[in-house]
Amino acid sequence: MKTAFRIVGVALLYMIAAAHVGSPDTWFEGKAGAYPVTVQIVPAGVVPGVARVLVRIAGDQPERVTVQANRFDATGGAPPPEVARPVEGETGLFAGNLWIMTGGSNSVTVEVAGARGRGSAVVPIVASATRRLEMDVPMGIGLAAMGILLFAGLVTIMGAAVRESTLPPGETVGTGNHRRARNAMLATTVVAAALVFGGWTWWNAEDEGFVDSMFKPLKSQASVRTGPSGAVLHLAIVDSPWVMRGDSAWLSRNRASAWTPLMQDHGKLMHLFLVRNDLSAFAHLHPSSVDSVSFLANLPPLPAGQYRVFADIVHESGFTQTMVSSLNLPTPAAPMSKTPATEVSGVAASAAAPASGASQDDSWLAGPVDKQATTATLAEGIAVTWNRSPGRILAGVPAGLRFTVTDRNGGPAQLEPYMGMAGHSVVARDDGSVFVHLHPVGTISMASQMAFAMREPGDTVRGRLGKRIAAAVMPDMAHDSVTSNIVSFPYAFPKAGNYRVWVQVKHQGTILTAAFHAAVEDGAERAR
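Predicted structure:
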């Protein structure tokens, strides 16, 4: 029973242990020099382990593609790059394998060389043990049978040795020899059984130690408080190693490592999402904090019910994680808008801000979704259309999350940067086992990518790098306008099931949110 509970616990841990929930692959879409690249990194799930790197290159094909892994705080040189080979039958797709030797914040550098010159892209990844490999059942049966045979053979050999090895040739075995042989076989059985039991105990202890060492996101608790201006969402990080991260004596006594400080990603210390259990309501909030332990956000007028709470944070080391908690939301303090939910999403400025301050980038949406619809009509006639490929949506296959935004006349809508991006998307499975926050560049954090690009030897002082990143102007956030009304997000649904896809864009200062249903079926096996 204990083993069964441990296996179930590991399975649940696997669903929540990645930087995003239940979606372990890392996706990046951008440029390596003059080459447009889409990178998918499939982790091994164990450390050390071999990660599979898939690089898709559009247009003119390069002469050489290499991939290289490096840890954030590596003091020595990085291992040599590995050549990514073309995948047979897939034009423009290259694949390579990389050993990831240490857990924590790592990166993969993709370098492309060819007629258009040489270019590279750095893709941050979180390497952590997220699963416990099970022994193959036929192999287990075979090993058990072999062990029983060896055990019986050892006992038999010892008995024969004591009974006959000292007899002269041709002499008959006497009663005394038989008695000594039986005693030797009994003693051998006891010693061998003790050794097997000791080995079994050691193996279980090692197994439990490995499970305990597997990465677990920081624990958090969400609650609703009453502020001077209305309901306030309070999220607290309750993990002792985080709360006591500044107390070196406590960390030493408890054999805990100190977390690096949080840093802003897209100008926010935290991206917090509320998803109603039935997927009928959604909020994207940005709490404020003075101590990085307690976070406060103005609570939008969402319908009452049970909600899942997902909180994305980025550490100065480039390590990203998603904290998971739940919240029973009471009846909203303010009445919901009478405008149909498919036509408008809320803006934080419409509600009075609590003392902590409300973010102008907060948004929410509530209401049913037509499961067959591929177009959602929003405020002022703005329409968001999912340009889905005909046919089924398959797990493990690029999902084609490509959306066109048009105005009331059907022409291209003029979009504005929403926290430095052309758009944001959130994907959630109906059972809460999958959650991911996407950008047009993929699943990666821009702040994490900058941490690898900007790190200097003096950044061993905690907080120094985070301040420089906060003060820096990200190239992808510096533009004043979005040049296209088409927004796409590289991603593949990790498993079959029913999903909700929320897409967020900004038009004339208003954040607009569209929601779509996705029924995902079993598809191609994940690349390894």
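Summary: DSSP finds seven helices and 27 strands in the chain.
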